[in-house]
Each structure stands twice: as structure tokens, then as C-alpha cells.
Design goal:
alpha+beta, 4-stranded antiparallel sheet, 28 strands
Length: 692
Amino acid sequence: MADFLVIVESPAKAKTIEKYLGKKYKVKASMGHIRDLPKSQMGVDVEKHFEPKYITIRGKGPILKDLKTAAKKAKKIYLAADPDREGEAIAWHLANSLNVDVDSDCRVVFNEITKDAIKDSFKNPRPINMNLVDAQQARRVLDRLVGYNISPLLWKKIKKGLSAGRVQSVAVRLIIDREREIENFVPEEYWTIIGEFLRGMEGFEASFFELDQKKVALSKKEDVDDVLKKLDGNSFVVETVSKKERRRNPALPFTTSSLQQEAARKLNFRAKKTMMLAQQLYEGIELGKEGTVGLITYMRTDSTRISDVAKEEAADYIRSTYGAEYLQSNDRKEKKSANAQDAHEAIRPTSTMREPSSLKEFLSRDQLRLYKLIWERFVASQMAAAVMDTMTVDLKNGPVIFRANGSKVKFSGFMKVYVEGTDDPVEEKKDRQLPDLVVGDKVITKQIDPKQHFTQPPPRYTEARLVKTLEELGIGRPSTFAPTLDTIQKRGYVALENKRFIPTELGEIVTEGIREFFPEILDVEFTAKMEEGLDHVEEGQINWIEIIDEFYQGFEKRLEKAEKEMQHIEIKDEPAGEDCEQCGSPMVFKMGRYGKFMACSNFPDCRNTKAIVKEIGVKCPKCQEGNLIERKSKKRRIFYGCDRYPECDFLSWDKPLPRNCPKCEAILVEKKLKKGVQVQCVECDYKEEPQS
């Protein structure tokens, strides 16, 4: 019989930990929370200082019974939930349900599931940290007060099934505000003049820089003509050459936010998928003879801090693999984010020595890709800065100056392993190397190319951009980003179009209703200040009830006003322009959790529904009878198929075009590249220049 009972959240975690602890320990899983506020009612007694009413979660009765049975037989119980507020709250609920003294040394925490980390944590158990529990309780109660008061109001005034939440409402507001910026954006004309130059047989580019030693705005064609008129022939003289050495430091190790952003950029992962895979890597993977091993540290963190042990192991690896010159210098200082709680380490591999290539046979393709990203980012973060030789050259022709910039890598440093991605395609331009020019050299223009441009509106939010913005504004915390993005899509408030968020009509109506009567819910500063207040609760600086009470006093008054003054809004169904093939009634567009669809207006008497068909104007190349339409797979990926399916099973992941290959007459498709698209033939080697 085991002497000690250890309770964790998941079976995978339990299996890994039990292997490290030995026969005296029995490790069981609670499967997350066992108690929570009831779903059928508010569950918060406002009159009794916002006292929460917790009940056993439906379906968790047998699990709790099993834990109670095991607890009676154990000499001591250890609660080993995750090392964050949520984990502390789970441990507290378990302690209350199993009659464990919260002031006893019953709580063990570890940042990684490795043998040494687990054994060390059990040498240093501690009482449950009630400040952490109270911070989590405050968040739960606050969200319940907002959600269970505003949501019924929205059901009554707008539509059933709607919801409102502190963080999700701000996220939707940001997406709507960005859409307004785009709609109201007025493009401004501007021009550039790019010159192609030759020094002997060596070619390079330079762009217009100055006229008469002054910066000149090229805002219209006349400005360009003025510059070109001042040119005297096609010969330029090198007036100045500036050479400098520039150092570039590596990106810091991953936080939850930066991992979600980089996985979106480099792996095309949604935030929800990134966190699911990271959870699997953290909890443990079966590695053959080695058994189950946790491969990364805890994945919900806003810290970039790294333990000394991990730094030393990384240094040994870098020294032996790349050489001592690739090790980072000791004078590099890490910046801590203003909003960071810094509760535990950054996300990193539990062992640098466990290279991604050694895990191919044990991990799924996506697990391996994410592990490789985390491993490379961490190793690179411990490496030396890259050194670039930069060169700036001014070319003179009369009063006209063109400037060329170039650079080359002198020492690759961290870039040998990993370079951080970016959302800005301009930043991703590769540095160009210039010829070894000296002052007085003559160069000849091969071509002068003036181009008209127009300023572009700000881009719509991708998941990565939105997560980054929420973090910068102090909205939400590491554990909330992925669920927030998931919720606003499931509610139908926003939709993803070409991997960018656009607000729906429903999202705009709900947001306007909240903006009018509950402005603080949508106020970025207010929400960020509330998050800061929860951090102060965690630090023991303020009682959680004070924060809730201060918020609720004003909120209750606005709720009463909204009940009386908020107008009923009828969201009319948009006609689809066709009749139901089952009953003849008009079909209408409706919004579901997966976006718009067509439904019969005679509902509930007729329950006919249809997907919205989007034709692309291309005849099916296989059957020559049907038309190609845009479809979506179960995983929401767009593909193209024949509208005569299942009679014709033509399918293409790439978008077919309404023109044929000039070489072989087969169909042409648009192949998506990392940046832009390329038109190519499905049969022969015909390709066109990529379009950005």
C-alpha cells in the first residue's frame, strides 16, 4: 500500500510523476477542477461579501469519490497542480474536499516534469498560498458578475445565447476599432525612385535620398519629374562611404504570448493548437527505453527568466557544438516586462542535450515542430550576438543624391541556430551586399524607376497580432489568451477571413450595447487596471473583496439603467435570394458558431439548412460539366471542389484559375507561398513570377 497520495490534474502528468517518485507514492488525477460555481445560477452571494457558492462539477462525482477513498488510506496527501493561480485554486478546492489542512505542507510545485525537479519539489512542500487562491477567486467572481448579469440582458434585448466577458469584450472592441480605422482610412499618394547602378559588371540598387542637400517629399508625379530633370546624364560619383559594425542580439526565450505569436508566424498554428501541443510536451512523452519524459517547462508564463542550471547546460552544449566564441557574453542584461508576474521560468526544453532530431520517432509531426521551435529559440537566446558589417553609400549627380544600403554577416552568432520571425514583411527584406565602393568611384545608371504608391491602412489583426496587442495593453494573462480568441469566434462576434479577424454584425451590435451602458467593460485602461489589481491580490497587498466591491458599486447602477433604457434590437435575417427546395419558403442567411449558413425562413416547421456556396468562376476540369466552388474541411481549411459532388470528386487545395497553361493547356492554380502566391501549372513545369 502506498504511503503517500499525490494529486495532479491530468493522467499523462500522473503517469510521468509516479515513475519518478517510486512505490511509496500513488499519483492520481483530478482531471482539472473538481469544484466550481454552478452553471445554472450566479453562484455569488452579493449580500455576503461576494461569497462564492461552490459545487462539485457535474460528472466529477466518481472522481472525487475515488480520491476520497485513496485519501483515507494515505499517511499524507500532496497536491501537485500546475504552478499558477489556476493550479493553486485547484489544490485549494481539493484540500477542502479531502479535509486537508491548507496550512500544512501539502502543496508541491515544479516548473518542469523531470526526475530532479520532481524530487526537489517533494523535499520542499509548502502550505497553500491563499493570496494566489484569492487572486483566482477574484477573477472568477468578477467574470461571473459581469457575465451572469450582462448576458441575460443581451438575451432579452438582442438575441438568446449571447455572452459578455471582461477580456473577450475588449478583444472584440479592438477588432471592431481596427475595422473602423480601415474603413475611414484615406490613402495618400507617394512616390519612390529606385535606381539600378553598375560599377563595372557589378550591379546594385540605390534609392533617391536628397535634392540640394534637403530631404524632399515625393508626394506627386511633379515632385519626381523635378528630381529627374536635375539629373545630368547617367553617371554618378560615390560621394561618401560609411562602414560600421552592428551587433544584433538574439530574442529572449519564449513566454506564453511570444510562443503563440511565433508558432502562428512560423508553423501556421492557431493559439489553441499551440497550447494543446505545449501541454502534451510539458506533461510527458513516451521516449522508448527512457520512459515518459516531460520535454519542456511549464507553458503558461510571462517570464523570460532562466535557471542557472539550464544556462550552464546550454553553455556546455553551445561550447561543444559550435565553439566557445558562440557563447553569449556575461554583460547582456534581460529586460523584464512591466506587466510580467515572473512567477516561474520562461518556456524552454527540460534538457538542451535532447536535440529535436533525436525525438523524431517519438513525437507527432506537429509536436516535433513545436518542440524544435522552443528548443532553437532557447539555445539561440544563450548564444553570442550576431555581428553585421553595414555599408552606406551616397551617390551624387549634380544636386541629386541616391543612397544605397548594404550589409553582410561578419559573425553569425545566434543566427546559426534561429532567427525570430516578424509580422512586418518590410522587416523581412534580406540585407544586400554592395560592391566594395570607395569615394570618387564612378558608377553608371542602368535604369531609373519611379514608382507610384499609396499609403495602406493598418492591417487587420491576425491571432498573433491580437495576442501581442492584448499583452502590450496588459489585458488578460498567459492562461487567458487562447481561450479568449476561441470564445469570441464561437460566439459569432468575429470571424477569421484569410487568417485575419473581421467583426460580424452580431459582434458590432453587442459591442455597441455594452459600450453605451457598460463603458468600463470595454475600456482598455480599466481592464488593464483590474488585471493589475488582481496581481496586487496575489502579492498580498489588497483584499480581493475590496476590488470586487469597488467595481460592483458602479456596475450595479449601470445594470439597473440598462434594464430600463436599453432598446430591443431585432437582428433581421438577410434574404439568401433563393427558395427552400423542401418547402418553397425563402432561404435566409444565419450566423452559427462556424460562421454564416443558409436556413429556411419557415423554421421550426422546416429545418432545411445549406452551406453557403461560393463559386470561383471556373469550370470543373475533370467532368467539364460542373462548376468549381469554395468549400471548407472539418478543420476549417479552404479547398476547391466540383459542385456535382459526389458524382464528380475533383478536389484541389490550391485555387484553380479561369485560364489554362500556355504550354500544355492544363489548369493553372494559385500556390500559396510564405509571402504571396505563385501561379503554376498542375501538369507541367510552367510557373509565373510570385506576387506579394
